[in-house]
Amino acid sequence: MSTINPFARPLYVMLKPAGSLCNLRCKYCYYLEKNNLYQDQKSHVISDQMLEKFIKEYIESQTTPDVLFCWHGGETLMRPISFYRKALELQRTYARGRRIDNSIQTNATLLTDEWCEFFRENNFLVGVSIDGPQEFHDEYRRTATGKPTFHKVMQGIRLLNKHGVEWNALAVVNDFNADYPLDFYHFFKEIGCHYIQFTPIVERKISRNDGLSLAPGMEEGGELIDFSVTPEQWGNFLCTIFDEWVRNDVGQYYIQIFDATLANWVGVQPGLCTLAKECGHAGVMEFNGDVYSCDHFVYPEHLLGNIQNKTITEMMYGEKQKAFSRLKHDCLPQQCRECQWQFACHGECPKNRFVRDKYGNHGLNYLCKGYRQFFEHVKPYMDFMKGELAAQRPPANVMNFVINAE
Q: Could you tell me if 69 and 100 are in contact, meaning their C-beta atoms sit under 8 angstroms apart?
């Protein structure tokens, strides 16, 4: 059994049971190209032997009684239900008194009654990728033959609801839907989604000899791909939705970035890695056992090793991963270090830090202007909610604060 440091921070390793395999071809997908890493391997699905080794080691590597398995893609439902039943059996075998939870991310187009019943019976939390109403969703989320997918996704959501499966939404904010924040937000409320993660899409056209894009955040330049959200769009999007949320929906609808911002305001670890002071606590393992520093840094230079040769503990607590974690803070440019909002974003995700700051230093986040707009806008409300939490009162009282202030 691996030696575990009881004072070490928790670690998570997202598992890719089918690598980058997917039944869709979303225009902005950053993971499809990972197939180029393993062109010499015929099968891109994890073997039973590899699955058992991962589950055993992953449970042993944890520093807390609770263990969260996160199944990610590609598309996770490219593996059959029998695969996940096998995984649950292995979890029970190696749990040794630990509590095991499972979350799975899916595009929802392959969901059936059988899948949903399986998720409900085994208490899976299901993350559904959906980019808002049909017009917005179908703009970029299409099949390999170019067909729209909205109706299939909604069919999957109805099945999840029918079987009482707990689910949340992962919504990508792009150049198109960012201009309609209220239409976007109202859609999720109308379909009864109370947990929403908004993810801004930022991608550049920079290629390298091995068929992969350049590792994000590692080099300046590169033409921004047209579906990327602009800093101005991102700031306006967040502020507009926040204004409705803070007046009507606090405590009823949970927007991950708003919760993470409040966490930073009160000085606790946010549940969103992009807004944390350091990153690197959440790695990713490919189907063949290769472990990488982060889901957005699956590149040869960020390979930590292979589970066949190193333990998860060695890789995730090793010097290479520690150095990766420190880079987020250590490489902040001068403008960030002087910024009053540094505590709230910590430079955001390193993959987006490819522009120069006002002093000419490399490493400013592309979305900086939008985040500054957002933090300035929400300051009085975050200050109030921070005070309510300190007084052991619900932050939802901010809705009365807003009414009284108007």
A: yes
User: Is 138 one of the annotated active-site residues of the chain?
Assistant: no
Q: What pLDDT, in 10s, does the model give residues 345-374? A: 999 999 999 999 999 999 999 999 999 999
Rounded Cα gap, residues 19 and 149, in angstroms: 21
> Which residue's entry shows tokens 């559904």?
128
Residue 1 has pLDDT above 80, yes or no: no
Tokens of 18: 């089918």
> Is the Cα dihedral 220, 226, 228, 232 positive or negative?
positive
Residue scoring higher pLDDT (219 or 186): 186
Q: Tell me which residue of 345, 329, 136 sits closest to 231, measured CA to CA.
A: 345
Kindly state the percentage of the chain with pLDDT values over 70. 94
Determine the 3-state secondary structure of 299 from DSSP: coil
Question: Long-range contacts made by residues 145-149, C-beta under 8 angstroms, separation at least 24?
Answer: 149/24, 149/107, 149/109
How far is the C-alpha of 30 from the C-alpha of 20, rounded, in Å?
10
User: Distances from the Cα of 202 to the Cαs of 100, 132, 176, 296, in angstroms?
Assistant: 34, 18, 13, 12
123: alpha, beta or left? (left if phi > 0; alpha if psi -120 to 50)? left
* Mean residue pLDDT across the chain: 94
Q: Given this model, what pLDDT does residue 200 score? A: 98
Catalytic annotation, pick one of 138, 243, 259, 295? 295
| Whole-angstrom distance, CA of residue 359 vs CA of residue 190 | 46
DSSP tally for the chain: helices H, then strands E: 14, 14
Q: Which two tokens stand for residue 75?
A: 């598309």
For residue 4, is pLDDT > 60? no
Rounded Cα distance between 245 and 233, Å, is 18
